[in-house]
Specification:
48% helix; 7-stranded mixed sheet; Butyryl-CoA Dehydrogenase, subunit A, domain 2; alpha+beta; 9 strands; two-stranded antiparallel sheet; 323 residues; Butyryl-CoA Dehydrogenase, subunit A, domain 3
């Protein structure tokens, strides 16, 4: 609920909380050693230390399992080499949770890298149009040494990322609810106050249809998020259910903010009315934590038992056809 109310005003604040609590902190809490939990969780819970979660790379986003960042065993620890991209909170994080491929076993491991570690550099990504308060970073690891004590022992492969993502997608499912509510608040007030042809916009049938559609979307999104939250509390939430909620809510939320922008007319593209901000921010929410397409394919796998992420090997691209 807190994520929803944050997002109702500013999705950047909600995203900051998501990355810190539901990715970085929860990874250490679920998969870290007791020593790591004692060292980090209290300060992170009180925001004395800020965390980020480094999985995405320049060459792979949706295909997150194709990690190229490597972890090589060296005396006393590990050497990390590679790059990460679009890492939220990355420029100011004190604690960086990094996923890298073990160069010997090929399995994915996870490490804690502290701010200021030699060989680690984070650079702010400029010129974003969405979630502008969130500091996304490009990261470079160049012979970055991490001691053995900073490797998370609970991570044995890429499948362990799903333990975290299933929980984080609950929060991401709530965020479009808040953003849609915020956009509706602004649109409903605007059409009551704005007059055209001598009467408030709210008196026109097409305007009321759009408001009703937004309300229907919001209530459906809210119930979807409530359901997966309860399933998680009961220990019955599946990856497919979490992905379905994230995909559905961002799709319907995207429609809501577009309707609100439409109702404001030309004023809908002005930052003063905040609807334009929700409009841009929703594009980021629609894409991160698994794109809409990837999440519906996860849900589709659950419905059919067939994974459709990759084209069958027998399928070939059609030859170019000349007119």
């Amino acid at each position: 609920m807190a994520a929803t109310e944050y997002a109702r005003v500013d999705a950047s604040i909600s995203t900051f909380t998501l990355v810190h609590n539901f990715l970085a902190l929860i990874t250490i809490g679920l998969l870290g050693s007791e020593e790591q939990k004692n060292a980090y969780l209290a300060d992170m819970a009180s925001y004395k230390q800020v965390g980020c979660w480094a999985l995405t790379e320049p060459s792979n986003g949706s295909d997150a399992s194709a990690l190229t960042c490597t972890a090589t065993k060296v005396p006393g620890g590990w050497q990390l080499d590679g790059q990460k991209r679009w890492i939220g909170n990355g420029t100011w994080a004190d604690v960086v949770v990094v996923w890298a491929r073990n160069s010997e076993t090929g399995q994915v491991n996870c490490f804690i890298v502290k701010k200021g570690t030699p060989g680690f550099k984070a650079t702010k990504i400029e010129n974003k149009i969405a979630l502008r308060c969130v500091q996304n970073a490009d990261m470079v690891f160049d012979r970055c040494f991490v001691p053995d004590s900073q490797r998370l022992p609970g991570v044995t492969g890429f499948k362990d990322t799903n333990k975290v993502l299933a929980l984080s997608r609950i929060m991401v499912g709530w965020m479009p609810v808040g953003m849609a509510m915020g956009a509706y608040d602004m649109a409903a007030r605007y059409v009551r106050e704005r007059e055209q042809f001598g009467t408030p916009l709210a008196s026109f049938q097409l305007v009321q249809e759009r408001l009703a559609r937004m309300l229907g979307n919001i209530q459906g999104m809210w119930m979807m998020s409530w359901r997966i939250t309860r399933l998680s509390e009961e220990g019955r939430l599946t990856h497919e259910q979490a992905s379905l909620a994230k995909a559905w809510n961002t799709l319907r939320g995207r429609e809501c903010v577009a309707l609100a922008r439409e109702l404001l007319g030309g004023n809908g593209v002005q930052a003063d009315f905040l609807v334009a901000k929700h409009f841009c921010d929703m594009e980021a929410i629609y894409t991160y934590e698994g794109t809409y397409d990837v999440n519906v394919l996860v849900a589709g796998r659950g419905a059919t038992g067939i994974a459709a992420f990759k084209a069958p090997k027998a399928r070939r691209a059609a030859p170019d056809v000349q007119a």
